[in-house]
Design brief:
The complex is a heterodimer of chains A (375) and B (48). In chain A, α5 packs antiparallel against α10 and α8 packs antiparallel against α9. With 375 residues, chain A is mostly helical. A two-stranded antiparallel ribbon of chain A has the order 1-2. Chain B has two helices and no strands. The radius of gyration of chain B is 17 Å and the shape is rod-shaped. Chain B starts with a helix and ends with a helix. The chains are: A mainly alpha (375), B mainly alpha (48). Chains A and B meet through α7, α8, α9, α14 and α20 of A and α1 and α2 of B.
Chain lengths: 375, 48
């Protein structure tokens, strides 16, 4: 008789909490439309894997479909890399080519990664786990998953949830930090628009050179950089329009769907409900705040050396994170609110695509440097 | 360089994190600076 009711008798309070967390993620996706393509599958996956006996994960030694997906796409890093091909096909480096100075904000806004990594070690995490937590600050879900898979598999679920949740919360996180660090006058700075078109040979050569450079500086970053730049090369080649569209649409949607439910599937109550998860979620927020602050303060520093007519609106610095194109849109909206008609979108997008470059290079460097210090 | 790595291997996690941060930030800036030079050079080249 007990076997008949095993579904009821196996439920624990931790499972009930996980149903609540799954429900909240689904609610955020549907009601608030925060990254619905990811949060909804993650939320549902979290419920699925915490149902009695976790049949969707494994039953009597036989892997369930979530486990099969996990082994096929997360454990071997395939899904994040496929997402990168899709993201690469979506990126237009044109605005960066027109405003090459913006590239430095893609470096400055990675400050949050490293500041958070240091804080994480102070809180007792080992270096590899701290590095994985810091990478949440890359504001780049696939990079966060990629690094966590290499360094901290046990924390993959909270790191992924934090990375994607905060990416969707960029419109709430960035504006107060920017207002705190800038004056109204600075936020009203106009920037001249460069209309020049970049030559096609540069657009084609750039992804190839970026891949080669990254491969020489940090060979371990090649899968990350290479897949992103492969997608971009497909886009810019001009002869693979259908492949480019497929990468941007079908590939992106399909892999995002599988990635989301698989991450949710890794959120078993035993692994997810602990003090570390809460710490990781808090530190993810800290990473985003430091990223934004790093970018803005760097822009202010830059301005000290620029003539009056070429000053940079320091809000642009905040776009150096990888949350593309959300961060650029947020900054343009703020600029317009400060002074109607102030258009800095192109410069913001230039900084934002630099953030994409900066985040994968930072991820690659972390992957290269950390193993030199700890085995 | 090997000396610094050896010292950091025997350091605390926080000191190691500071080392990775310094190296990482320098690396990101240097790499993106190289891309900056590439873009500017390409721009100059395309004008000729």
């Amino acid at each position: 008789m007990q076997d008949v009711f095993i579904g009821f008798t196996s439920i624990t309070w931790k499972m009930l909490i996980m149903y609540g967390i799954g429900g909240i993620l689904i609610w955020l996706a549907i009601k608030k439309q925060y990254e619905p393509m990811l949060l909804l599958p993650i939320g549902f996956g979290a419920i699925l894997v915490n149902l009695p006996l976790a049949i969707a994960w494994e039953h009597e030694g036989v892997p369930g479909f979530l486990r099969v997906l996990y082994d096929a796409g997360i454990a071997n890093e395939l899904f994040p890399l496929l997402i990168f091909i899709a993201v690469g096909a979506m990126i237009d480096f044109g605005p960066l080519f027109r405003n090459p100075l913006m590239i430095f904000f893609g470096a400055a806004a990675q400050f949050g990664i490293f500041a958070t990594m240091i804080i994480a070690t102070l809180l007792g995490f080992d270096l590899k786990t701290a590095a994985s937590i810091g990478i949440i600050g890359a504001a780049d879900g696939p990079t966060a998953i990629y690094v966590a898979t290499k360094f901290a598999k046990d924390y993959l679920a909270p790191i992924s949830v934090a990375a994607y949740s905060y990416m969707s919360l960029v419109p709430l996180i960035q504006p107060p930090v920017i207002r705190l660090l800038t004056t109204k006058e600075e936020r009203r700075i106009h920037m001249p628009l460069h209309e020049k078109q970049s030559p096609q040979w540069l657009r084609v050569l750039f992804p190839i050179l970026v891949t080669m450079t990254a491969g020489i500086i940090a060979p371990i970053s090649v899968p990350l950089v290479g897949s992103l730049m492969f997608g971009n090369l497909i886009r810019e080649s001009g002869v693979l329009e259908r492949l480019s569209q497929t990468a941007q649409n079908e590939l992106a949607y399909l892999v995002t769907l599988l990635l989301g439910i698989t991450i949710g599937g890794s959120m078993s109550a035993e692994k997810f409900l602990n003090k570390d998860t809460i710490l990781i979620l808090v530190m993810g927020l800290v990473a985003f705040i430091f990223d934004t602050a790093g970018g803005v303060l760097f822009a202010k520093l830059f301005n000290l050396f620029l003539p009056r007519e070429r000053k940079i609106n320091p809000m642009i610095g905040a776009c150096g994170i990888s949350a593309f194109p959300m961060s650029a849109r947020v900054i343009q909206k703020m600029a317009n609110e400060e002074e109607r008609g102030n258009i800095i979108l192109m410069q913001a997008i230039g900084a934002n695509v630099s953030g994409q470059l900066g985040s994968i290079i930072a991820g690659g460097l972390v992957l290269a440097l950390v193993p030199l210090l700890v085995k | 360089m090997d000396g610094i790595i050896e010292i950091l291997r025997n350091a605390s996690s926080t000191e190691q994190a500071i080392g990775v941060s310094v190296g990482g930030l320098i690396g990101v800036f240097a790499t993106l600076a190289f891309f900056f030079v590439l873009i500017v050079a390409a721009d100059r080249f395309s004008k000729h």
